[in-house]
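G., the chain you wanted modeled:
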Amino acid sequence: MKLIGLIGGMSWENTIDYYRVINEIINKRLGDWNSAKIILYSVNFQEILPLQNSDKWDIITEEMIEICKKLELIGCKAIVICSNTMHKIADQIESQISIPIIHVVDKTSKAIKKKNINKVGLLGTRFTMEGGFYVRRLEDKHKLSVLVPEKKERDYIHNAIYTEFAKGIFKNNTKEKFLEIIHELIQNGAQGIILGCTEIPLIIKPEDVNIPLFDTLKIHLLGAVDYMLN
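Predicted structure as tokens:
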């Protein structure tokens, strides 16, 4: 089993699921007392969020590269960044280390293609929906068509993620609004919906809609386990 490095804390809510579910999958596959070989580096999100909001991604990139180098030095064979948004700088980070980053977009596109779907809706932070890095990778590298909500809805989703979900707050009226946005994407032709923030699956469930939901947290976790055991 390969040792992997998790970079968490963005938010700590979803990092708990990353650690717990990876271990559950490892134990299910191997049985007995098997558990995952993991080094977890959990950041203080209070230090990261202001840099994101002021578009100081160069500073974030430098800090993330240093974290990854430390994990590589310890002996990690791959990096899992426990955040869709932080994959905005994944390519820059990977160019400065000699171990791979298990990329959430690549694993998600593979899951989409298994369903024979070519047009998907994308929900996530403003950085994910508007930053280009997520949509471009899906469209250019994986030849998928991607729909995102209108500006007003994108702002609503972004604010809910940071002011509610990242703090462990999940409201019924927020869920209802998310479902309205999802149904609008379906009306516009989406055949599936990417839950492109690892907190969204904590409130939106497969039984809530009648088309496939792509839970990037679970997809990412499975990709990590496959790498560890391959």
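The chain is about 50% helix and 15% strand.

Shout if anything looks off.
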